[in-house]
């Protein structure tokens, strides 16, 4: 459970920390890997979502997966990537959320994933929540907790865990 004070501080800024779908770079499964490589190089990200024509989230495509595919091609020439589709190299969506307020889940996922897709009840892609946006909130929390709350250390006992995870 996230501490209520921490949750309130993280959500204090009422502006959304979701990067909306219309500004998230994406490709479709039927795009060529050459096209996906161009998009990834242009935006400078390692991984972007793969969307269907109806905006359903289908998977993820990464620079590493494209490079891996390229290395399987004799001669490893980049133009060979035009013979392959994103569908040949995309990976399934590991984690997602359907509510941007599910902070505990989001924070846990962001430990391993640089971003988490947000989908609606019909699995339609709504946007992403990134480490950067969450870290901005955590930075605010780290600097302002004492402004909003009295924080005093508890007496440590032998039973008090010094390190605990989630
Ligand atoms: P950041 O926390 O800003 O470094 O973003 C983490 C990851 O989220 C990036 O490496 C990308 O994979 C993804 N990402 C962030 N912003 C966008 C965007 N506008 N379009 C597509 N992917 C993005």
From TrEMBL:
Signal peptide (residue range): none
Highest taxon of the lineage: Bacteria
Domain CBS, residue spans: 25-70
Pfam (any one): CBS
Family annotation (NCBIfam families): CBS_CbpB (NF041630)
The protein's name: CBS domain-containing protein
Source species of the chain: Levilactobacillus paucivorans
